Amino acid sequence: MFASLPPIVLLSLSVSSAALAIAAVSGVPLGARLVLQPLPGQRWIVLLIYTGMGLPPVVVGLFVYLLLSRSGPLGWLDWLFTPAAMIAAQTVIAWPLVVGLTMTAVEGVDPALRLQLRALGANPTQVMWTLLSEAWPGVLAAIIAAFGSIISEVGAVMLVGGNIEGRTRVLTTAIVLETRKGNFELSLALGGVLLGLAFLSNFLLLRLGRGIVR
Amino acid sequence: MSALYQLTGVQQVYAGRAVLDIDQLTISPGEIFALVGPSGAGKSTFLRLLNFLETPSAGAIRFDQRPVPSPAPLTLIRRVTMVFQRPVLLTRSVQDNVAYGLRLRNGHAPLAGKVREALEQVGLAGLARHPAHQLSGGELQRTALARALVLDPEVLLLDEPTANLDPYNVGLIEAIVRAQNRKRGTTVVLVTHNVFQARRIARRVGLLLNGRLVEVAPAEQFFESPRDPRTVAFVRGEMIY
Fold first, then answer.
1. Residue B175 domain-assigned?
2. Which residues on chain B are in Cβ contact (under 8 Å) with A130?
3. pTM of the predicted model, to two decimals?
4. Nearest-CA distance from A33 to chain B in Å?
């Protein structure tokens, strides 16, 4: 089992990193935009996003499973039980967290700044990026919270990935499997690796975040 | 001299209530015009319209002989800039704050010389690398003034720029504004409830009450022989509002 650990760690990291990247690239600007240019029905949109922040991963897994199953609307993609399906499911989990917490972070920046930036000649996109840089600690917290949520979830990747050895097995699904088999020492070791990985990833995200700001 | 700004029948309505209603007003290039009035008279709304950050609900604004389109293009907005009563600076160094507007326009072109010049102008060259959020109130406002002056705007709009400052900083900021007007020909529009400040620096003064212009006159006439009794009361500090 220990020999198969590196590919499992690598897959865990690559699936969660890809999902996080998709959620961050699309979710951070959207979160800021929703604060700066509210849409019609904004209250309902915000309610939906906040509800999404608490979505149970297993429900997301079921939803994505049905979408990607052979008879589902996206069955033609043939993604079920592949890392692509796992990335899709984790993106759905991470996205509302990134959008919702980015909104909160941008709302925390002094609203008077927006008008002052416009008076200095900033266009709407420049205003948005400046506010994001001012809200960066909160935005970084959003990204870290989303990463913590998806690297540690098991329900969604289990359902859409299937825990296939060498193909879709990640740390969390491996822990479930080994625990069921009674290999508690191995499960604990895998749990330790997962915790270490989460610590290291968050440490790197924080360092990277500070580097971007300075 | 032809007008820089020409406002005709300009109205601004928020939630069904007209907060500004100006029949006619012209502002000439290179002048210092002060609009005085009590809090809530519509002075800040007036400045936002002159900065083209808002579109009037009715009426027309002409700038530099041309009607201002709605929404105003960025090139037009960038000919004007504003200093606010409560400046909000970015959580960066003083020099990065001053460079902000220049970077919006010039990307990563070398700007250090212009930024240093603007900081020297406001007496803050020694604090260039200082974090902006550690500045005192007067330093904060002078940094805000520097980030506006560095853009070398055609029009400098000042929204109660010294309302919360000590006499030293008030004097300093007024001197900087006068120098900018004299040396660069920058048109200055100041809104304030401080009639003494208006008298010290403006060449023409207007009184705004409940969104309406009561009287506009050269500074000396406005303070020495106002025509409207409401101007008399406001100048003497006898107006109850």
1. no
2. 90, 100
3. 0.88
4. 18
Q: How far is the C-alpha of B156 from the C-alpha of B121, rounded, in Å?
A: 15
A120 and B88 within 8 Å at the Cβ level: the answer is no
The domain tally of chain A equals 1
Same domain, yes or no, for B160 and B137? no
- CATH code assigned at A203: 1.10.3720.10
Distance CA A198, CA A187 (A): 16
A164 contact B CB<8A:
no
- In this prediction the ipTM stands at 0.92
Q: How far apart are CA B156 and CA B134, in angstroms?
A: 26
Nearest CB among A115, A121, A134 relative to B105 is that of A121
Q: Domain range spanning residue B141? A: 86-152
* CATH of residue B1: 3.40.50.300
The number of helices, as runs of H, and strands, as runs of E, in chain A is: 10, 0
Residue pairs spanning A and B at CB distance below 8 A = 46
What is the C-alpha separation between B226 and A42, in angstroms, rounded? 51
pLDDT digit string, tens, across residues A176-214: 999 999 999 989 999 999 999 889 888 888 887 766 554
Q: Which residue has the tokens 């160094």?
A: B93
Are residues B148 and B159 part of one domain? Answer: no
| pLDDT tens per residue across span B170-229 | 999 999 999 999 999 999 999 998 999 999 999 999 999 999 999 999 999 999 999 999
3-state SS assignment for residue A41: coil
* 8 A C-beta contact, residue B19 and residue B12: yes
The reply to whether B18 falls in a domain is: yes
Q: Which are the contacts of A167, defined by CB distance < 8 A and separation ≥ 6?
A: A81, A82, A83
Closest-CA distance of chain A to residue B236, Å: 33
Report the SS3 class of residue A51.
Answer: helix
CA–CA separation, A62 and B212 (whole Å) = 63
